[in-house]
Design brief:
Elements: H1 4-22, H2 28-44, H3 55-77, H4 81-105, H5 109-123
């Protein structure tokens, strides 16, 4: 069981990780550069080159990157436990789709994204001790509020 302060640190660390990982996805130009590196890494891990991305793919990737970047900055600046719980849910969703893609393609690069997603999702699902930070008397209160 984590203390509230330890959980807040965990939420902030996961947000910092996300900012570092997602920043290159936020513009079509940086996303293209990243795609080249990811493709080379995938080949180095025994996979095949990633497919060429067209403008629509770049748009979707950049939209995703932009939303995740904003969400990450919010959690970094205000690491509320409830944000950690919502982030855990999002990580489980992301992990589900990564696992689906891994099953379909077998591309080893996906493991480098899937493992941290699951790890942060599980960590942010751990129980929190509710006795600090002014939360006394609210043990029944949901962390999602």
């Amino acid at each position: 069981m984590l203390s509230v302060s330890a959980f807040r640190r965990l939420v902030r660390v996961s947000a910092i990780y996300d900012v570092l990982m997602i920043a290159p996805f936020t513009t079509p130009w940086t996303f293209l550069l990243l795609r080249e590196h990811l493709s080379a890494l995938n080949v180095g891990l025994g996979g095949v080159p990633l497919p060429v991305f067209g403008p629509f793919h770049l748009l979707i990737g950049s939209l995703l990157g932009s939303v995740v970047l904003v969400w990450s900055v919010l959690r970094m600046l205000d690491p509320q436990p409830r944000f950690g719980r919502y982030d855990a849910a999002a990580r489980y969703l992301f992990s589900t789709w990564m696992a689906w893609a891994l099953l379909l393609t077998g591309q080893p690069l996906l493991w480098l994204f899937l493992v941290p997603e699951l790890a942060f999702g599980l960590a942010q699902s751990l129980p929190v001790r509710r006795g600090e930070g002014g939360l006394e008397g609210h043990a029944h209160e949901s962390l999602l509020r």
